[in-house]
Amino acid sequence: MTDKNFKIIGLTGQSGAGKSTVSKAFESFGVSVINADELAHKALKTDECKKSLAEAFGKGIFDEDGEVIRKALAKAAFSSKENTQKLNKATHPVIAKLAQEEFETLKKQGAEAVVFDAPTLIESGLDAMCSLIVSVIADKSVRVQRIMKRDGLNLEEAMLRLNAQQSDEFYTAKSDFIIENNETEAKLRKTAEKLSKELFDE
Fold it and tell me: Residue 104: which residues within 8 A CB-CB, separation 6 or more?
């Protein structure tokens, strides 16, 4: 699915590792960023996705208007790796279609590269669309503090989310570039900017 004239940089990593900061650094180089989380929000509005989610998690994740209650879905989906896989199975096909539409639009506009920011890029099989993969990882003890602060979660909620995610080894085995982020955001930005020059300043 790759196109040598159009570079798709897959950006992924663990929650709380700093992927969003890296994404912004790449974007500062003038490269468009397609965010899979934003596509996921659109996907949750589709009938195809709603039907799959209802089969996986029941009607309790919907409000009276038939829209997905994201907090209820997250609680159910992140309670185990099995349930996370159910969420992915329901949403990934729709996200893939939406992403492909975005890529085609950028190609028609003359873009030569795009960053595809996707937390479950590899698990979803969407990495097959990418020219190369960049993963951002960090120690679990660091990530749990970050997501508690960022998302307003308590320790139990944060650990449920982290325990449903992949290990460092999963990413290192499947990526072309690894960024480790256990220190300051300023240092992460510098690392990301250096990689940006290598990837885009050709």
Answer: none
Read off the DSSP letter of residue 132: E
Q: Residue 33: name the closest of 202, 201, 200 by CA.
A: 200
The model's pLDDT over 88-114, given as tens digits with 9 standing for 90+, comes to: 889 989 999 999 999 999 999 999 899
- Say if residue 1's pLDDT is above 60: no
For residue 94, how far is the Cα from the chain centroid? 14
Distance CA 149, CA 142 (A): 11
Looking at residue 48, its amino acid is E
When pLDDT is averaged across residues 41-63 and rounded to a whole number, the result is 95
Distance between the two ends of the chain, CA-based, in angstroms?
23
CA distances from 6 to 84, 102, 142 (A): 31, 13, 35
Domains and CATH numbers, the chain: 7-200 (3.40.50.300)
Q: Which residues of 63-96 are buried (b: 16+ CB within 10 A; e: fewer)?
A: eeeeebeeeebbbbbbeeeebbebbbebbbebbb
Whole-model pTM: value is 0.81
Q: Is 154 exposed, middle or buried (0-12, 13-18, 19+ CB in 10 A)?
A: exposed
Chain-centre distance of CA 190, in angstroms? 21
Asked if 144 and 16 touch (Cβ cutoff 8 Å), the reply is yes
The three-class DSSP label of residue 125 is coil
